[in-house]
Amino acid sequence: MTLRMFSAIRYILLFIVTILFQIFFFDRLSLSVFFAPMIYTLFIIMLPVNTSSAATLACGLVTGVTMDIAMGTAGLNTIATLAVSYLRRPLLSFIVGRDGLREVGAPSPKRMGNRQFFEFIAAMVVIHGAVFNLFEVFSATNIVYTLLRFTVSTLASLLFIWLLGRLFTYKSASTL
Amino acid sequence: MYKLIEFIRRSYVTILFVILEIAAINYYAHSTPYTRARLLASANSVFGGVHGVISGFGEYFSLARENRILTARVAELEQQLTVCREAAGDVGFEPAELQYEFMPARVVSNSINRSHNFITLNRGLRDGVVNDMAVLSPSGAIVGYILDCSERYSVAISVLNTSFRTSGKIAGDGYSGSIEWRSDNPHKVTMYELSKYANIEVGAQVVTTGFSHYFPADLPIGTIEDFRMKEDNTAYTATVRLATDFTKLHNVLLVKNIGQGEVMQLEEDVKLTTH
């Protein structure tokens, strides 16, 4: 099996696992009205650093549409995932520099440095959560509760995505 | 021309992004609770089975509690039945044609952490579920109403959905107010525009009015926890503690209003003739 195929299979698995995890675990949590972590963006965050803008956008579209159907959100997830997918490359370029964009594997602490890795994840999660909640607020009644939900959920998403992202890149940093 | 092609070649991702984003925003902006319920109902043909298994596990741990609630409910209904039987025996009462049909269902998935929450139930078209059926908790308090059904599953709008509206009144009182969820607490809803003449006090029971197409009259909604007079002194705004605990909802009752189709048809006819 070529390295490319191995990598493709890993990403397909990552896509399936994050989506199942989101639908069957995080979306079922009834801890608080403000606690709604969204970890499925991990798939877009973990795409290889050198993924083209068009391919990232396509991945964002597929992820968003899948989540919209599964969560019954009618476009809300797609709006948010398209935004992070479009901004992913400029963000990476800003954080690791233009030369860094030629890296072949997934973003990882080893490849980018701990601080840059965290900054990248944080920026992606915050943008996703902000767009998601901004559009949701148009139909919700109270902006204070939306802000609270955005803050609590984004912090929770960030924690989980950082942990899962480290797990995904733990052994494979050199091979992927 | 060359410049145009070069511009498109260089910025096609941005153009594509803008087109896709506009399409998604347009779809979202035109969506209604019905669109969302339809999406969920279609997703349930794939995910419903797994949701059912997971909720089955969860339900196992709450069996004792559910059992207690059901036994209490059976005792309460037995009591009412005895009273009714005695009364019926006294006057030689013949039961009228049934207006409501009840059906038990299991909650397959239920969220509380969105501003638009929905509940998926394990009963669908093949079990005779139709849109607009009321969903009640085992103790008879309101939970929501059915928006869409697939063959094996149905999706209900939850009271914990900012698009949910119904009317409520203080039990034994004639004045009604509008019940809405403010998305801040899964145990509380707000009752707006309750007349200043209403007989309100903390702890008073709030029940359905029967004005809605979905819920029969006098079903429990919750109890008054707090209330205040509006600044213009015309009506009360009250906080109502819900009778249903949505964080522990495993079993529900579906209620079909047999005369509802006829009522809606009549209203539709009136609308047509008056416009």
Question: What does this 3D model show about the protein?
Answer:
The complex is a heterodimer of chains A (176) and B (275). With 176 residues, chain A is mainly α. Chain A has one domain: Arp2/3 complex 21 kDa subunit ARPC3 (Orthogonal Bundle), CATH 1.10.1760. Chain A has seven helices and no strands. The longest helix of chain A is centred in the C-terminal third of the chain and has 26 residues. Chain B has four helices and twelve strands, in the order H-H-H-E-E-E-E-E-E-E-E-E-E-E-E-H. The longest helix of chain B has 29 residues. Chain B is globular, with a radius of gyration of 23 Å. At the A-B interface, helix 3, helix 4 and helix 7 of A face helix 1 and helix 2 of B.
Please give the structural blueprint.
The complex is a heterodimer of chains A (176) and B (275).
Chain A lengths: L2 H22 L17 H4 L7 H19 L4 H21 L12 H4 L1 H24 L5 H26 L8
Helix pairs in contact in A: 3-4, 4-6, 6-7
Chain B lengths: L1 H28 L3 H29 L1 H29 L8 E11 L5 E6 L12 E3 L5 E8 L4 E8 L4 E5 L5 E5 L7 E8 L9 E4 L11 E10 L5 E8 L8 E7 L2 H15 L1
CATH fold topology of chain A: Arp2/3 complex 21 kDa subunit ARPC3
Low-confidence stretches of chain B: none
Share of helix of chain B, binned: 25-40%
State the major sheet of chain A.
Answer: none
Number of helices in the DSSP assignment of chain A = 7
Tally of individual helices of chain B:
4
Query: Which CATH class of chain A is shown?
Result: Mainly Alpha
